[in-house]
Amino acid sequence: MGNRLTQIATRTGDDGTTGLSDGSRVPKTHLRVAAMGDVDELNSHLGVLLAEPLPDDVRELLVVVQHELFNLGGELSWPGGTLLKEAAVQHLDDALARYNATLPRLKEFILPAGTRSAALAHVARTVARRAERAVVLLAAQEAVHAAPRQYLNRLSDLLFVLARVLNRANLDGLGGDDVYWKSERLARGGGDEA
To answer: Exposure of 37 by Cβ count < 10 A (0-12 exposed, 13-18 middle, 19+ buried)?
Structure first.
């Protein structure tokens, strides 16, 4: 990988390009840069979520996720390089299984609402989906390993599940359960019928 930053205001990007870890420069509009930016934004949203009161186990998991996202972003900035390990994807699969086992079955679609921490998890989930789409788009043009795409896919699922967990944790007193979408079917009393 390239040199670590020793200063931030390098002015090398004034021409509309950015440097990659292999020393090459690409336009700031390049698909690789867009994917890197979406991953960076996702990591920043997780930082905001981590500023909220959270259950200890959720906090520990999200701190690990932030480090893995940094690896993922580093891998995207290094064409052909590998930083994100397959074990990171498995870690998310394990967390998904563990947290899903604690939740009741969904009765209907849920809204991205409830406690502040749950709402922030939903925002991060949508950014994870955008980052995943950016990586898929990049992979259609250039070689990209499967782990970054898989990681973002699992992470968006996990953030959905964690939003449900955080509503139940109710650490701000504004949650307690999922906030269900009020569909026409439910309004007619259709319940689970199709």
So the answer is: middle
Q: Which two tokens stand for residue 169?
A: 């944790």
Q: Where does 26-181 sit in CATH, by number?
A: 1.20.1200.10
Q: Which helix (H) or strand (E) holds 9?
A: none
Strand partners, 25: 19
Query: Which helix (DSSP H) or strand (DSSP E) does residue 5 occupy?
Result: none
Domain boundaries, the chain: 26-181
Query: For the chain, how far is it from start to end, CA to CA, in angstroms?
Result: 54
Euclidean distance between CA atoms 178 and 168, whole angstroms: 8
Predicted confidence (pLDDT) per residue in 89-114, tens digit: 999 999 999 999 999 998 889 999 89
Nearest residue to 74 via CA among 20, 131, 5, 8: 20
CA-to-CA distance for 49 and 53, rounded, in angstroms? 9
